Amino acid sequence: MEEKAKEHDKKIEASKEEAKKDMKGFIASLKQFLKELLSIRETTDKAGTIQSIKDSISMKGHTAWILVFSIIIASIGLNVSSTAVVIGAMLISPLMGPILGVGLSIGINDIDTLKRSMVNLGVMLGLSLFTSFLFFSIPLFQEETKELIARTQPNVLDVLIAISGGLALIIAISRPQPQTNTVAGVAIATALMPPLCTAGFGLATQHYNYFFGAMFLFLINATFIALSTFVIVKYLRFPMVRYINSAKRRRIARFASFVAIVVLGISVYTFYNLYLEKKFKQQAQTLISEIKNEGFSVIDEDESDLDFKNKSIEITLYGKSVSQEDEKRWRQELIALGMEPDVKLYIHKGKDDSKLINEFQTLKEQVARDQKIIEERDSNLRSKDEKISFLEQEIAKMKQNHIPFLKLSEEAKINYDGIKEIAFSNKLVTNFKSVDTIPVFNIKWVDTIPESKKKIQQQKMQDWLKTRLDLDTLLVTDL
Description:
Strand content: 5-15%
Order of helices and strands: HHHHHHHHHHHHEEEHEHHEEHE
Number of helices: 16
Distance between the termini: 139 Å
Number of strands: 7
Shape: elongated
Largest sheet: 4 strands, mixed
Helix content: 55-70%
Number of domains: 4
Structural class: alpha/beta
């Protein structure tokens, strides 16, 4: 029995060892799969990427004109609130070059490229602001549209888009065969042009809060795109620029590292503040929704009522009367939602206007009923007008087709000898596609008139009647 137990234990141990080997093999295979799936170091064209970014830094000649015209197109799109036009402008704009140059130069300690990138970035900003300023200086184009106002205040989502877009952009450029469609997509997603156009609008219309808000949004996008470029350049281990003077190289390396740390610190701080602001507004909106659910009417809602900077929330209520217990409960609700205790909640209370609301609702229902009666009356009037119009048309047709038989008979008797009787009728003729009505005059002549004269007389009478009645078709026959 003991030997069988030992042999059983050995089999169990062997099974465990085999399972461990299988697990290790699976983990190794999974690591290899993920490495092949996600690795970008082996296929990166470092020299080509550096040269491609350097070639796109310059803002002179053709590139400058492309920038000017793309700014004009984007400004027109913002002025008419056309998203399609704005996207088209972003597709042709050359804004990415200097921004990528900044991130690359800091990553590889290339002070010359950094200087060149900063100069061209300044030229790009100046040219863009000047062009949009001139466009929006024309009074015809100074309307504040939703597309313009939307570019005056950044949020945390703009930062996430800039980070993701910057990472996607530098990875796409570093491929052995760069993906131009990715570059275009990043240009649209990060939306660098609209804030510059909005900043020019702010200068032209002297809305300096628009100018500073739009410039802040542009700088956030540009900073995080450059930062993403720097991170990928470091991760892919791009070759550092070598200098003959080692002391100079160390100074440049320290300067580049210092700039990178400062930019990173500012970026993290900005991102964190925007995150807190987003969270603050979401919590405030949650409280406002709960107040509405309790039957209170919140009026004059505005974004400025949720002041993150001063940690205050203003709510204007109408409808039900607000008690001190309600205000106390709402302040406790703010803390329960996760807000800091020092956040101030200002409740602007209106008087109890429930009676006024009921009267207004009654009046509204009465207006709706009256409107329905008016619509029914208008419908009846339109129906009667249509009937009258139809009858008038029929009467006109009858008048047009009326034959003055007695008058014609007297005239015919005077003009033509030998007429004994005249008969008139309308003859209906069809070719199975349409039906025509032909007037027919039947003439009975006296017996003494010869046949040859009858035919001549009938033809003359037919021509006379056509002219007299203004008809194209008409027949004169024997009775």
